[in-house]
């Protein structure tokens, strides 16, 4: 299910490429890559989202992740 974003595709793609390059440079296996990305998400939620909204944001993030993978 496509999700409309307020961000430009080029902006998102540029950041994704940089993150992937760092993971590849460090030869991070799948498990480490997922752990690092998960830790980034957790850090952003804990540091940039008001406490009262964190659970809802985490749930929406989780739902969007689940909806975006191939089943």
Q: Whole-number average pLDDT?
A: 94
Portion in beta strands: under 5%
Structural class: mainly alpha
- Rg over CA atoms: 14 Å
The outline comes out as globular
**Major sheet summary line:** none
Number of helices: 3
Distance between the termini: 12 Å
Structure description:
It is globular, with a radius of gyration of 14 Å. It is mostly helical and 71 residues long. The model has no long low-confidence stretch (mean pLDDT 94). Helices cover 76% and strands 0% of the residues. It is built from three helices and no strands. The protein starts with 8 loop residues before the first helix and ends with a helix. It has a domain of 36 residues.
SSE order and pairing:
Elements: H1 9-25, H2 30-48, H3 51-68
What can be said about this structure in brief?
By secondary structure, the protein is mostly helical. It contains three helices and no strands. It is globular and about 35 Å long.
Features:
single chain; 71 residues; mainly alpha; 3 helices; globular
């Amino acid at each position: 299910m496509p999700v409309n974003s307020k961000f430009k595709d080029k902006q998102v793609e540029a950041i994704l490429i940089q993150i992937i390059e760092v993971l590849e440079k460090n030869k991070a296996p799948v498990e480490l890559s997922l752990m690092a990305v998960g830790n980034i998400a957790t850090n952003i939620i804990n540091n940039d989202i008001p406490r009262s909204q964190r659970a809802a944001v985490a749930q929406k993030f989780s739902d969007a992740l689940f909806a975006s993978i191939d089943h």
